[in-house]
C-alpha cells in the first residue's frame, strides 16, 4: 500500500511537535535534565538530584515519589502530557544514571532463546527499526480515592489524573524477540522484564507477559528510550524501559536491564503483590495476612478496563444562573472529560445523564490519536511514526456534551459512563477490592443550587479530591451517616425510587466496623471506647501490643482516641466480643465537673515529673541527630529545663502524633534513650521505615516522625511496662518483687537496643552495684545497623573484658575459659563485612548457650526485637537450654 506521506493537517501537527521538542534532545545524556530548583520535599531523600514539578500531588509523603498532576492541569495540557506533569509510580529510590552509565547501559536478553545477547541502546537503534507510538499509560489505581472513602484499601489515594500520554520512541519487542529466536513452542512461555531498582527490600521490580502476546507486533509492546522527543526522564525510566500499550501501568518496567524468556511467569515480588484484583469479599487485613489470595492467577491484571471522568465542570466551579438565563440567546455549558479503554479497544460511546441515570444523552467524541493514522512520518530521531495501518487504540480520547443552562438548572448531578468496541461499559455500582484497583463505576458530579450575593448559582462538587485533601460529595455523604455507594443528590422527589434507594443509611463496606454487641447490656467498666465498655481481661496475653496497652487504658473515662489511632477495621470488629455494656455517666460528669485531670492531692510528684499514666502531655521537638543511615535521635523538650521525666528503668512510654500528610493520629510504644539523670528533655531513638516496594506506605509512625520539623509537638503518656529494674539485683516483674538477680542476659535486634541500653546504663552507672553481671547479644543485618555502637564500645572499655570481645563466640563456648568481668558484648550480623570478628547469621542455640548466663535462680534474660527473632529463635532456644521462660524471660 502506498503511504500517504503528505497530509497538511498532520504535517502541521508533527512539525509543531518537532519544533517544540528539538530532535537533538533524544540524545542519551543527562545534560538535558535540569539540575536546579529541586523540590524541598526531595532534598533529604535519595532522589535529591531530581527536579520535579511543584504542583504534582504527592501520595506517599516525601519518598518514594508517587504523584499525579492536578486534574485541571492534566486536562488543560491536552492530548500529549508534558513530562513534568506525567504521573509517576515509584516503589523506591530512582536509580542514579549519569551520562557515562547511560552510554554503557546494557540490556541482557537470555533464557529459552537460541541467541543470548546483550544490547547497548545504540545496538538497538542499529539492528531494529526505530518507531514512535503515541501511548496513554494509566495506573490500575486510577480513581482509588473513591474506593478508600468507602473503606480503606491497601493503597494510597490516587485521584482521576493517574494517566498520561506521550510519544514513545524505541523498538518493537516483537522484532527483538524474532532476532533472539525463542525456543518453540510459544505456548506456556513467558517474557520476564526486570529493572535496575535493585535497592528495593524484595529485589528489583519485575513482571512478565506471555511470549505469544509479547511476540505480537499488534500489541505494540516496545523497548523505549525517548519520550516526547527527549530522553526518558529519571522518574520515567531513563535510560531504557518497556511500554505495554493498553495494559495497566505496572506492566511497563522502568530502568530495564533484563529480558528473559522462561517457562514460568515472573517470580518478582510485585508481580504477585501488586496489580491484582482480589475478590470483593477479601478485606484489606485478610489480604495482608492470607498471602494465597495474591497467587491466584485469576486475579492477575493485564488489560485496562473502560473508564471515564468529568474534567469540566471542575471541583468547586460556579455558574451564575440568573445572568445566563436572562440572555436573549440560549445559554449553554460544555461538559467535557476523558475516556479510555484497554487491550487496544476503541471507546465507541460516552453517555451523559442529568437525571441520575434515568435517561442518557450521547456526547461528541474526539480521537486525537486518529490524526496519526492519516499520514506516515519519518525522521532520523523519531524513526517511523506510522499508524496508517494500525487499528488498535492505545490512547485516551476526549468527549464533550453541550448542555443548556436550563437543563443544568433542573439537574442535581452530572453522570458519565463510557463503552468500548467490545461492549465493555462502566458499571453503576462500585466493585470494591482490597487492592483498590480498576475502579470504574460511573463518575458523578453533584450540582448544588445556591444563592450567593442575591444571585442564583450552580456549584459543582467532584466525588473526591486526590491525596489527603479533604472534600468531595463522597466524604460529605459518608460523614452524614449515609451510604456513598448510594449517593443522594438534591432534594427527595416524590415517587422517585432511585432517591429512596440513595437515602439508605451506611451499611456493608461503607459502615465503619461495628465494635458493639447489641445482645450485651451488663454494666462493668475496664476501658471505654465511644461510650461502650469493654472487658479485655481474657485478651491480655494474646494482645499484639502486649498486656500493658490494655492496662494503661483500663479505668480511663475515655480511651477512644488511643484505640482508634492504632487499630484497623478488622481489630475494631474483633473488639465486639469483649463488649460488656454502656458507660453510665457519674453525677460529677453529668454536672459538667471538669476537675478529673487535676493531680490527686496525695501524689505530690504528679505535678513534678513529666510523665502521667492517665493523661497525654505534649513535648516540643528541639533537635534531630543522625546515628545511622536510617536511624535518628529525636529530642523533645519537657515543660521546664529542670523537670525530671519520671521513667523507671525497664519501662517505656506511649508516643502519639498526627501525620502531616494524612491527618491520621498514630501512636506506638517506645523506650527513651535519655540518660537516667537527665532533666528537661526526652530522647527517642527512631529507626525509620520509609515507603518501599514491600510496604508502599512505609511505617505509619516512623513516616510521621520523618515528617516532623523542629518546633512541632508530639504527645507522651506513661510510664508503662511489666518490668522494673530497681537496682542491686532487685526487680519488679508483673507486680511481683524479686531479689538476688545477679546475672542479666540481654538480647536485642535492631532498634530493640533501647530498653536494653536503659538497663545497661542503670546497672553500670550504679556505684552501689558491683556484683550484677551483664551478657549482651546484639543482632543486626549489617555493621552500619548497629545502633549506639559508640556508647556500647565505651561501656565495654570501662567494664568488659577485651579477650571476650575479640575472640568470637566459638571461643566463648570453650568451657568457660574466657574471663568475664562485669560486661560481655557480642554482635551477630546477617550480612557481615570482610574480616568480621563476631558471629554471622541469625541467633541460634549455639549463640544462646555460649553467650547467655546458664539457667539459675539468680539469672534472667531480657529481650527486645522482631517477633520472628523472639518467637522463632530466642524463646524455643532458651527452653531447649533448660530455661523456664515463663519465670525468667522478659519480653519488652
Quickly describe the structure.
The protein is α+β, with helices and mostly antiparallel strands. The protein is built from 25 helices and 43 strands.
Percent in helix? 10-25%
Number of strands: 43
* CATH fold-level assignment of the largest domain: Sulfite Oxidase, Chain A, domain 2
Known CATH architecture of the largest domain: Alpha-Beta Complex
Span from first to last CA?
77 Å
Shape: globular
What percentage of amino acids are in beta strands? 25-35%
Strand order of the largest sheet: 15-25-24-23-17-18
Can you tell me the CATH class of the largest domain?
Alpha Beta
**Radius of gyration, rounded?**
32 Å
Quickly give the structural class.
alpha+beta
Full CATH superfamily name of the largest domain: Oxidoreductase, molybdopterin-binding domain
Amino acid at each position: 500500500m502506498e503511504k500517504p506521506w503528505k497530509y497538511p493537517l498532520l504535517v502541521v501537527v508533527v512539525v509543531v511537535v518537532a519544533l517544540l521538542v528539538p530532535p537533538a534532545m533524544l540524545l542519551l545524556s543527562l545534560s538535558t535534565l535540569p539540575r536546579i530548583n529541586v523540590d524541598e520535599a526531595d532534598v533529604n531523600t535519595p532522589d535529591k538530584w531530581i527536579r520535579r514539578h511543584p504542583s504534582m500531588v504527592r501520595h506517599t509523603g516525601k519518598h518514594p515519589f508517587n504523584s499525579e498532576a492536578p486534574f485541571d492541569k492534566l486536562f488543560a495540557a491536552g492530548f500529549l502530557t508534558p513530562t513534568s506533569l506525567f504521573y509517576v509510580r515509584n516503589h523506591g529510590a530512582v536509580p542514579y544514571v549519569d551520562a557515562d552509565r547511560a552510554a554503557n547501559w546494557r540490556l541482557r536478553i537470555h533464557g529459552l532463546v537460541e541467541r543470548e545477547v546483550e544490547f547497548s541502546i545504540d545496538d538497538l537503534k542499529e539492528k531494529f527499526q526505530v518507531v514512535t507510538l503515541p501511548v496513554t499509560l494509566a495506573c490500575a489505581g486510577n480513581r482509588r480515592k473513591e474506593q478508600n472513602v468507602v473503606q480503606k484499601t491497601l493503597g494510597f489515594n490516587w485521584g482521576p489524573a493517574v494517566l498520561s500520554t506521550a510519544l514513545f520512541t524505541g523498538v518493537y519487542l516483537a522484532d527483538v524477540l524474532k532476532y533472539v529466536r525463542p525456543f518453540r513452542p510459544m505456548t506456556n512461555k513467558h517474557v520476564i522484564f526486570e529493572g535496575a531498582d535493585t535497592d528495593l527490600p524484595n529485589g528489583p521490580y519485575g513482571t512478565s507477559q506471555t511470549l505469544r502476546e509479547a511476540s505480537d507486533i499488534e500489541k505494540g509492546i516496545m523497548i523505549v528510550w525517548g519520550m516526547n522527543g527527549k530522553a526518558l526522564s529519571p522518574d520515567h525510566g531513563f535510560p531504557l524501559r518497556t511500554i505495554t500499550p493498553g495494559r495497566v501501568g505496572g506492566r511497563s518496567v522502568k530502568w530495564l536491564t533484563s529480558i528473559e524468556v522462561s517457562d514460568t511467569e515472573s517470580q518478582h515480588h510485585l508481580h504477585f503483590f501488586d496489580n491484582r484484583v482480589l475478590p470483593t469479599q477479601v478485606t484489606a487485613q485478610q489480604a495482608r495476612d492470607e498471602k494465597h489470595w495474591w497467587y491466584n492467577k485469576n486475579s492477575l491484571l493485564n488489560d485496562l478496563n473502560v473508564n471515564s471522568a468529568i474534567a469540566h465542570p471542575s471541583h468547586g466551579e460556579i455558574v451564575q444562573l440568573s445572568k445566563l438565563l436572562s440572555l436573549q440567546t440560549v445559554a449553554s455549558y460544555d461538559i467535557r472529560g476523558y475516556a479510555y479503554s484497554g487491550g487496544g479497544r476503541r471507546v465507541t460511546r460516552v453517555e451523559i445523564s442529568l437525571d441520575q441515570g434515568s435517561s442518557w444523552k450521547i456526547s461528541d467524541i474526539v480521537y486525537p490519536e486518529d490524526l496519526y493514522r492519516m499520514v506516515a512520518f519519518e525522521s532520523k530521531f523519531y524513526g517511523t511514526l506510522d499508524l496508517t495501518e494500525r487499528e488498535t487504540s492505545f490512547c485516551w480520547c476526549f468527549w464533550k456534551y453541550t448542555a443548556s443552562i436550563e437543563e443544568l438548572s433542573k439537574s442535581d448531578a452530572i453522570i458519565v459512563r463510557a463503552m468500548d468496541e467490545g461492549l465493555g461499559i462502566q458499571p453503576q455500582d462500585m466493585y470494591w477490592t482490597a487492592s483498590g484497583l480498576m475502579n470504574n463505576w460511573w463518575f458523578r458530579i453533584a450540582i448544588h443550587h445556591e444563592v450567593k450575593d442575591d444571585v442564583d448559582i450552580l456549584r459543582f462538587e467532584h466525588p473526591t479530591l486526590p491525596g489527603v485533601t479533604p472534600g468531595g460529595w463522597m466524604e460529605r455523604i459518608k460523614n452524614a451517616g449515609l451510604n456513598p455507594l448510594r449517593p443522594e443528590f438534591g432534594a427527595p422527589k416524590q415517587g422517585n425510587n432511585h432517591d429512596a434507594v440513595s437515602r439508605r443509611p451506611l451499611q456493608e463496606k461503607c459502615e465503619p466496623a461495628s465494635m458493639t454487641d447489641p445482645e450485651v447490656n451488663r454494666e462493668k467498666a475496664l476501658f471505654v471506647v465511644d461510650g461502650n465498655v469493654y472487658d479485655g481481661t481474657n485478651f491480655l496475653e494474646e494482645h499484639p501490643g502486649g498486656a500493658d496497652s490494655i492496662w494503661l487504658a483500663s479505668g480511663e473515662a475515655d480511651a477512644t482516641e488511643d484505640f482508634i489511632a492504632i487499630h484497623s477495621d478488622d481489630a475494631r470488629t474483633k473488639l465486639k466480643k469483649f463488649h460488656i455494656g454502656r458507660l453510665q455517666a457519674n453525677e460529677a460528669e453529668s454536672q459538667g465537673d471538669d476537675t478529673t485531670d487535676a493531680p490527686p492531692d496525695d501524689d505530690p510528684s504528679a505535678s513534678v515529673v513529666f510523665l502521667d499514666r492517665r493523661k497525654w502531655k505534649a513535648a516540643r521537638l528541639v533537635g534531630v541527630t543522625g546515628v545511622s543511615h536510617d536511624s535518628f535521635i529525636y529530642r523533645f523538650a519537657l515543660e521546664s529545663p529542670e523537670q525530671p521525666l519520671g521513667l523507671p528503668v525497664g519501662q517505656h512510654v506511649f508516643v502519639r502524633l498526627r501525620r502531616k500528610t494524612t491527618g491520621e493520629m498514630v501512636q506506638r510504644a517506645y523506650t527513651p534513650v535519655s540518660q537516667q539523670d537527665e532533666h528537661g528533655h526526652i530522647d527517642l531513638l527512631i529507626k525509620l521505615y520509609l515507603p518501599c516496594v514491600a510496604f508502599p506506605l512505609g511505617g505509619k509512625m516512623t513516616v510521621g516522625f520523618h515528617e516532623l520539623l523542629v518546633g512541632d509537638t508530639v504527645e507522651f503518656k506513661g510510664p508503662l511496662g511489666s518490668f522494673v529494674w530497681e537496682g542491686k539485683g532487685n526487680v519488679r516483674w508483673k507486680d511481683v518483687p524479686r531479689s538476688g538477680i545477679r546475672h542479666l542476659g540481654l538480647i536485642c535486634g535492631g532498634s530493640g537496643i533501647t530498653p536494653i541500653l536503659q538497663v545497661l546504663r542503670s546497672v553500670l552507672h550504679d556505684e552501689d552495684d558491683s556484683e550484677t553481671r551483664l551478657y549482651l547479644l546484639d543482632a543486626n543485618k549489617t555493621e552500619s545497623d548497629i545502633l549506639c555502637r559508640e556508647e556500647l564500645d565505651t561501656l565495654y572499655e570501662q567494664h568488659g573484658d577485651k579477650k571476650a570481645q575479640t575472640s568470637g563466640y566459638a571461643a566463648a563456648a570453650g568451657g568457660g575459659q574466657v574471663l568475664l568481668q562485669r560486661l560481655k558484648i557480642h554482635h551477630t550480623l546477617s550480612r557481615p563485612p570482610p574480616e568480621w570478628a563476631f558471629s554471622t547469621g541469625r541467633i541460634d542455640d549455639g549463640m544462646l548457650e555460649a553467650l547467655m548466663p546458664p539457667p539459675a535462680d539468680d539469672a534472667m534474660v531480657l529481650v527486645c526485637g522482631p517477633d520472628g527473632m523472639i518467637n522463632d529463635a530466642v524463646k524455643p532456644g532458651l527452653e531447649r537450654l533448660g530455661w523456664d521462660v515463663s519465670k525468667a524471660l522478659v519480653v519488652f
